[in-house]
Structures are given as structure tokens and as C-alpha cells.
Input
Amino acid sequence: MSQTIINVFKWVFAQGAPVIVPISVLILGLVFRAPKKGIFAGALRMGVGFTALFALVGIIFSALGPAANEMAARFGLSFSVTDLGWPTQSGIVFAIPWSMAAIAVFIVLNSILVATGIVNTLNVDFNNHWIFVFYMGATLYITGSWVFTILVGLIFWFVSLKMADWLYPMIDAYYDMPMEGITITHAYSILWAPIGFLLDKLWDSIPVIRDIQWDHESIKEKWGFFGEPVFMGWLIGLFVGVIAYFDWPPTGAQISSALSLAFTVSFFMLLLPRAAELIVAGMAPLSDAVRIFVTKRMPGRKFHLGLDAAVLVGAPEHVAIGVLTTPIAFLIAFLLPGNKMLPLGDVAGLFIFICVFITNTNRGNIFRGLLNSALILIPVSFWIGSAMSPANMVMANSTGFALPEGAGLISSLCVGTTPFGFALYKVSEFFTGIGSFKDLVIGISIIAVFAFVWYLMRNRPKEYAKELLGE
Amino acid sequence: MKTMIRRNKSKEKKDKKRIMLVCGSGMVSSTLVYPMVEEILKEGGYRFEIIKGGFNDIKNHASINLILTTVSPLPKEVVEMGIPVVVVTSLFRGDKESVRENIYTELKK
Output
């Protein structure tokens, strides 16, 4: 009998994400008393979402793999890592069997911290908790240490909450928010705020640069097509296809290979969000239930609600930056020394969110926002994104996230946008004996720089809010 | 039971409302509030169709009666379209009542 049960468990875990994750959503949904109908429909959608994601990843690798090999063989351009984009990346994280439970625990812990007054922000952005779980998963699958896994998750998550508290006054002053008490807990973007403030001071002190202002209206009109994933995907596919396949003059077969790659990448970019959407829709009832569970138990106390940076990106400076960072990121991929990652899934739709806090900390100055992105944020995303590909591979393989046979290394720009999480991961690599001294130095330096810059800027959000409201 | 059926029938004669639900990416927060928005509209007895997307997609759809958004402020070109807008971000706080009120007020106009 017990043997049968063990076999059933073994079978379930062998099924991979499309089966395990919906089951965990069902169980957690029951625990948090979500409406049963919604939970079942959600679990089903989630399974479909994973299946769609796997199909898309299969298609993109079958098209891109040969082209990448050709590029490497002909030009020595070695893009050994493919950026699969945050929709796929979060899918890999959600395929970790305990991911949903970890997120629920984070939110419940958060409510306790709010109730006891240790933090003032309740992060109800269920989906975006995946970045904490990503660095936890990386730590667990690489080092095998649960202690460090939990430490990495808790520290990263706690610092993000503190940052959200710290930034609240400026968010409230900068954006004309329709309701009070909104802050942003989107770790990918808010952790850039201290550096954004520092750079703003720096640019203020440099003649010429100090006075540059760009007009957002004309940018959107002229460059708007860069914001269209279908178009960007087609262009990237064509570009890679031309480099990989073309002789001069190209033969008909070479042209059709390049065109076919262009349409495949465009198809991938168009449907990837739909797959991600199904997974998010699947967790919506659970996310609701957890939120209701914690807010019901917090009578009286005022707190800030932590949301995704996506709620801010309607501001024109963010739209303009979102559009312009796409071609810039693509260029950087080819020029950046040490870059191994071919930008794909995240190149057209990510930076509009990530650049929010290096733009609004610079008074919405588009030129400065772009400069900050091009000089620091985007290169760092490529480096760390590439560096996280081994952990991503182990994670995908251990959680039954289906990668096609012969697929190259995978990662995403998105995980590269949180140097702080990366630093914690590096430090735990060292202390578990997996990493070298160099890993420790990298980790400690990032944390030290982050802490120092924050310390220099510690009063800035309040001052800044006063400046903004005074104007 | 009978009265309920009759009421539903008379409601069906009402125009179908085309409602656009948008967020920054068109993927995450709009998907998360979708069930709540759907419930509010059902409770109001409206015939409706929800179109979900990013705020850049609004221009691609014709005859939208109402925009529900988690993004705020919306870009100027969207505001200039003159379609009524209700910000639904407070649904994340569990504040269904004020959102419900705002939606019904806009739809009655």
C-alpha cells in the first residue's frame, strides 16, 4: 500500500510543471479558502499555460539553434545563452514545486511584519514574488543548502519591502495617483532607485549634460514601432538570419531561411505573453484568496499597498524610454565585452518597467533615464543574466520544465536586473563551498556598493518629494 | 425564479457594453483583476464584453464604452480619446465597493 502511494508521488513529480504546479495551486487554494470553482478553472488554465510555454520554447529553439551555430562558426559570435524572456523565466520558477507555497508564506509573513510595525508595506503583487523564488531556487539547486536558500529569499524580500517603504513619499509625490497609500514593491525596478538618485546628482554637476532635455512626444511618434513586439521580433529574427546565413550575394535559399527565422521569432514574441497570461490567470484565484486572507486579519493599521511598477508606466517618459531602450539593448548585446546572451524574449517589453526608477529619480528626464540605462542597467542585466544561465539550466532540468533536446543555454535579461539578489546568491555559493573566493568578492562588493549608495541617498526620497510638490 | 428569468431577458435588450481592461504589460495585473471586474459587471446585470490588453492596445479597438485600468495616469493620447476611465487599482486593496460605484456611475451616463 505505502509502496503504491510512493509510486503515485513519484509519478506525479515526474510529470513536470503542467501537472505539479496546478496541483500545488489546488492545495493552496483549499488552504486559503479560495472559491473552488475559480481554483479548478485556474489550475486548468495553468496547465494549459505551461504546455503553451513548452511548445513555444521548442519552436524557438528549433529555429534559433541552427542560426546560432552558424553565427558562431562563421563570425565567432558566440551567443551561447538565449534570453527567453520573463514570461518563460517566471514559468521556470513556477515549475519549482514549492514556489507557490513560498509566495504564500512571504505574503503571510509580510502581513505579520506590517501588523507589528516592522515594515509599512504589504506586497500583494503575488506574481512578481517569483524573483525572490528564482534566487532561492538558484541557491537550492546549485548549493543544496536549504539554510542559505531561505536566507537568500528572506533578505532579498525584506530589503525590497524596506525599499518600498523608503520610496513611498516620492512615488506619492511624483505620480498623480488616484488613491493614497500605493507604493511599488517590484524588486527589479525599485532596487535601482538609490543609484538613480546618485546619478541624477552626478549629471547635475556636469556642464552640457546638465542641460539636456528630450521631448517625449516626438520620440513616441518617430520610434513607436520599436515598442511593438511583433515588429521587433521580426527584425531581430531577420538580423540574426542575415548574419547567420547570408553570402554576398545571397541565394534564394538563404533569403528564405532568414525570412523564416524572422517570422518564427515574431511568432514567439506575439504568443509568449499569451502563454504567460494563462499562467497568471491560473494563479489569480489563489492570489486573491491569499490577499483577502491577510487583509482581513489586519484591522485598523494603515499600510501601503505594494504593487508592480507596471501601474506607473503610463507616464510619457516611461513610454518613451520603453521604446528607445529596445534598440539600445540590442546594440549593447553585440558590443558589450563578455556578453554571451542573445536578447530575445525580454528585449522589447522589459525595460519599460525596469527603467522606471532610474527615470523618475531623474525628474523624468528622458535623456538621463536613457543614459543611466545604457551605461549601467542594461549592461548589468546582460552580465548577470548570462551568469545565471547555469543555475537556470539546473533549475529547468530539476523541475521538469521541458526544454527541447539540444537546446542551448537559457536565461533571461530579467533576472539580470536584480544585482542584489545575485549578490546574495554569490555569497551563498562561497559559504557552501561551491563558489570560489572570487564569488564572495563579487557578492560582497555589490552589497557594499548598494548599501553605501543607499546610505548617501537615504534622505533623498523625502527631499525629492518636497521639491516635486513645491514646484 | 420566473421573475429572475424575465429580468435577465429585459436586461439583454440593453446595449452590450464594450469594456477595455488594461494594465502596463497587458498580461499580469489586468489578468489578476479580471475575475473581480467580471463579477462587478455581472452583479450590475450588464451585458458586457471585456477586452484585455496593454494601454497601447486601446487605439486598436473601436467603440469602447469604458476603460478600466490599473495604470495611472494613462498616457495623454489615451485620455484625449475621451472614453470614460475608471482606475481599478484599489481592487488590490480589496476595496470593491468604490470601484463598483465608479463603474456603475460611468456606465449609467
The longest strand of chain B covers residues 17-23. Residues 96 and 109 of chain B are 20 Å apart (CA to CA). Chain B has a mean pLDDT of 85.
